[in-house]
Each structure stands twice: as C-alpha cells, then as structure tokens.
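During the second year of the project, the team shifted from modelling isolated chains to modelling whole assemblies. The rationale, set out in the original proposal, was that interfaces cannot be judged from single-chain predictions alone. As a representative example for this report, we include one of the complexes processed in the last quarter. Its constituent sequences, exactly as entered into the pipeline, are reproduced here:
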Amino acid sequence: MSLNKSDIDKIAWLARLSISEEDTPNYLHDVSNILDLVETMNTVDTENIEPLAHPLEITARLREDKVTETDQREHFQKIAPAVDNGHYLVPKVIE
Amino acid sequence: MEWETVIGLEIHAQLATKSKIFSGASTTYGAEANTQACAVDLGLPGVLPVINQQAIEMAIKFGTAVNAHIADKSVFARKNYFYPDLPKGYQISQFELPIVGHGEIEIQLTDGSKKIIGITRAHLEEDAGKSVHDGFFDNTGVDLNRAGTPLIEIVSEPDMRSSEEAIAYLKKIHSIVRYLKICDGNMQEGSFRCDANVSVRPKGQDELGTRTELKNLNSFKYIEQAIEFEIERQIEVIESGGKVVQETRLYDPNKNETRTMRSKEEANDYRYFPDPDLLPVCIDQETIEAIRKELPELPEAKRDRFIKEFGLSEYDSDVLTSNRDQAEYFESVVNAANGEAKLSANWVMGELSAVLNKSNIDITQSPVSAEMLGGMIKRIKDNTISGNIAKQVFEAMCNGEGSADEIIDNQGLKQVTDPGAIEKLVDDVIDANPDQVKQYQQAPAEKQGKLIGFFVGQIMKKSQGKANPQQVNELLQEKLK
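Output from the structure prediction step:
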C-alpha cells in the first residue's frame, strides 16, 4: 500500500502534529513501510480465527459501584497553566 | 410532489450509578466545578480505567427490556477527537462489539395504531466534560465533573416517518429507562439527551434522501418543533431546485429554526480502535437470565393490567403508567380505598397532579400519601362526604391538617344523609321562596331542570355543603310537583 504526501498531512492534522515540509518524505517512507507490513499480515488466511480485541486472552475484572475518590481539585489545579473559579481555562473555543 | 420523512434517533441516557464508568469519582449532579474529577477523569499520565460493574448491569437491563441480544463478549474502543472537554484526546466508547445488539419496541400513536421501531444497538461510553463559554473573557472554562459519567447510547433504525412517531418512540424509551431506574430521565440537566437524523424522499422511493443531524434538543417539545422545522426546510430546498447538504444543525428554540453547526465535508475521522487499557467484558448467560428475571413490570404490561384489573380506560391507564412512581402511588391509593379504582384514578390525575404541578414537585414528595388519599376516597364512596366536600378535605390534607377522618371529624364535615334532617332543609327553602316555587311549577318540563338548581343551591348553602346532593334532588322533585 502506498501513501502520498497528502495522506501524511491528513494523519498529522488529525493527530494535531506539526511536521515540517522537509521531514514529510521521511514520514511518508516510514509509515508506508509499516502499512506494507500490515499488508503482508493481511495475506495470512484468518478465515476461521476469531478476531482478538486484546493480546492478553483474559477478561476484564469489574469494579464495585462505590465512590472511592475524594476532591483533589486544589492539588490538580496547581499544575494547570490557567484556572479561574474552579474551571480549567483554555483559549476560547466556540463551534 | 408528496414527500415522506425518515427519522432515526440517537439517545444518550446517563446511567444512574454512584461512581463513574471508569473511576471511583462521584457522579452527583450540580457539584462545584472540578471537585468530582479525579486523575482518571482528567486523563493524567499513568492512570488506568477500571470498569464499573453497575454500568454493565444497567446496560444489560436495558437490553433485556427491549428484547435485544446481549453480547457475550463486549469490547471498548477509543474514539479519537480533540476538544477541551475531552482531556484524553479520545472518548472510551464501543464500536464493533457493543453490549446491546438489535432490539425493538412497540409505540402507540394518537389514532390508536401501533408500530414497531427497531433499535440498531445500544453501547456504553463515557460522557465528556462541559465547556463554559461565558464568564471567562477570552477563555473557555472547562468543568470535568461530568467527564466519565456512564452513558448508554441507544441508536434507532430509521423507522420513524413523522415527528409524532419520533416523540412516541422517545417517550417510550424515556419511560423504560425510568421504570428500570437506570436513568433519572432529567432532560433539563442533560441526563437524557437526543439527536435526530432527519431526511425526506419522494413517497415511494426506496433510496434514502440526504440526512441532517439535529442537536441541542433538550425537551420533547423542542425535538418535535426542530424535526417539523427541518422537514419543511428540506422540502423547500429540494423543491426550489437545491440539494440538502449532509451536516450537523443546531436547533434554536428562541427563533424556532435550525442552522448549520458543522458540515460533514470536514467530517470527523474518529479512527476507532480497541482500547488497549481495557480487556474485553464477558457476560455469561446466567447473569443475563438473573437480570431478566428481576426486570420490573414495564409500562406496557402495567397499562394492560390496569385496563383489565381495574377496568380503567386506555387513556387513564396510559397516563397513570407513564411514570413508575405515579403508577405505584395509584395502586397504593386503590388498595387503601378498598379497590375503588375509577375514583382513585380521577383524584390522582386531577386534584393531586394539579397540586404537584403547582408546587413543581414529584409524586414521591407528595404532601398527601397514597394511604391518606385512599382513606379519603373510601369516605366519598361510603357517602360520609360528598365529592365537593372532599375537595375541602383534600386541601386540608395538603396543609398537613391530618388524615381525612380526622379532618372530617374536627371540621364537622360529615355529610347529612338523615332523611328527616334533609326534609327539613328542603321544606324551609321551599317555604322561604314561594315566588320561585310558582315559577318552577308553571315552567315547561324541559326548563324545570335548570330552575331546580336554584333550590339545590339554597339548600347546599344552608347545610354548608353537607347535605347529600342526590337525596336533596330526589326530595325536591317530589315536593315541587
């Protein structure tokens, strides 16, 4: 499977990563290689094999529905860049 | 051209767990900002989600109530997108193996007809936080108390053909989740939310038209208005030669219109993949069966039973069973009133609901208990008090003046049924009003019914409303002949 430059740009934008124009060919090369490996894996016949959702073949242990956390807002907000009136502040976002 | 509307709904119901779906933080509504957002909810590095068993059981409850297939193996996936109220950069949701598979419910329309609406699936996911755009100058404030609250997203098939059907479906699901006590159903606080996918196509065409997704619908009324507006808008666009654009539209209740929020051209690419932090959830048949056995009687079954057991009309039964607490209250009233169902229904749906609406309280907080109301109805039934006096007794009960019997005793409200006493009242009034008697006797038969009202009124006034109206009427007719 071969990608082109615009695929790389799109993937980077989705991940909110900024990549320089000059680095793009390297990413294109590396990511294409990874996808080629996936293509190779795709050639294996998996007709009667159940898809694996997790490499550990065990199932989840569940938690009892109990409140175990206490309010640590002050502690957490010490490392936040900006807070006001208990809220974490971010640049204005309006859709 | 004749158009057909196609509607599918996505409902988000917050599950009524005490703690969050993947953390031990509290889910109580209305706390001070970020005081219920722990390290897991904030998406701090190094934390791991652990699934809340109660959320799983509530989802299974819903699935069994709509006759859906429950997955024996269910997987959580990451839905990736960036928004400030989603600190991890992904929402933990379900994609390929949702916990609840295909199910269906029956809805009833105002013309009495019934229709089956399919449920495609229902999956578990975590709610996001809240962004507050006002009050922080050039910033947006983020409150993550809601982040991680368990949600079940219920996706319907595009089976609905009018806003009426959509509302009937929505109300049905609303009533089911509340009966199951898995969601409080509060639309104002956002515990029960709905997005609508709406499209139109020429009648008879198989292919679906281009749909738009309506958001910001937080009451049944708005949902209906938004769908109605959107149907009209789409038909207008097509009939004037345009094309409906696939997009998300926001409903503005103040202007009663929908407008573009974001178009799918820049469609989100969520890149779902199984969350490596969470192992698959396996549910065995015994667990499912145990939950199925404990399901409460659901609205439909209750309604049918009310019709059969109490002889109530379909309408009364529908109203009474629309909410589980009300239905249970009603049954307790009937019990306390020695099985007097029709009168109990009238009082619960009439006077009682007026009082509750007026003070904007829930039936569980009613100032008059079911036993008290039943006790009063018993006294109407055995002729101790008339229906009119009962209103006075009811008001006194609302004011905490005691039980019906105490109030009747204390205020001397017992109905006068002694024939001798009633005869005296009737005679006194007839003697005091010779002119009216003459007028009555000279009037044609069809006008007498109206004229007799004057005498009844006088007698009731004289007896302070306590004379038995039926006896008064009978005796008057006899004497005025």
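Chain A touches chain B through 35 residues (CB under 8 Å). The beta strands of chain A are 83-84, 87-91.
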